[in-house]
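Crash report, auto-generated. Payload:
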Amino acid sequence: MKRYKNFWLLCGVVILLVLPLLLVQKPDPGQGEAEIFSGADGQAKELVTAIAPHYKPWLEPVLQPPSGEIESFLFAVQAALGAGFIGYYLGSAATAAKNKARS
Amino acid sequence: MHIMEGFLPVTHAVGWSLASLPFVGYGLHVIKRILQERPQQRMLLGVATAFTFVLSALKMPSVTGSCSHPTGTGLGAILFGAVAMAPIGLAVLLFQALLLAHGGLTTLGANVFSMAVVGPFAAYGIFRLATRLRLSFGLSVFLAAAVADLLTYLTTSVQLAWAFPDPNGGFLASFGKFAAIFAVTQIPLAVSEGLLSVVVVNALKRFNSQELQEMQVLTRQEVQA
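Recovered output after restart:
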């Protein structure tokens, strides 16, 4: 068990990600909210508009990704850069530890 | 936890920026000192930054039927102390504000305060407390990262409720509504962030236990365990 600890922890994360997909039912198309798994940040923005209908945002975003595809591309780049660095670091640390154990 | 561009009144935007400023300033000083005095830790500092980059880019589904993302700032706070994460969080939030229209320049101060100040301080405090209570190393990391994640989103709810109190129920009613969106959605994600932080720390412990010991994250007994 101890040896595969990280494997089981990652399994836990996968379960936490898959469960919502199975549990949340798609609402009937006729009833209002047709979209599921929208972003919480966007929902909060809508709630602001509902609570304070006269509030006008006083600045627009500098650059708006021209489409959803471009947006997910940028998010993927962000995640890839981070994961790449962590992978590089752990890889070199593992090699260093191995070399040290051998000498 | 990203408050969208322009979605805080001017006074709030300025106020939160002023509140975050000293943390970012002192954090930069702390990072500079780490790089000067312990240059061997510069890669590990990169790992803490990279972890925040990855986790804040991952929008995950939650049981509430909406999507949100973890923050990743708890891990770095455990390794380098809370205040070091303020400038790191700022860098990530700036990237998202400028390129992704996610968050914004006017709300940067408020977003830095929730993700890069409240979260890291909670993580550091909980980690130290859990260690003192002699909880296991893994459990301490898990609790610190998960609770920090959740508190970040509760902070965002407070910020929005303060700026937009409900016309009938005032601050509390508004807070309840924002927390229903943010905090409940965040519970499974906070657990995921806790688990992922433990995964990374386990790997670091295996290959870099001496470094962690120098940073007083691990004690001698825990290295041998």
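Post-recovery validation: Residues 88 and 94 of chain A are 10 Å apart (CA to CA).
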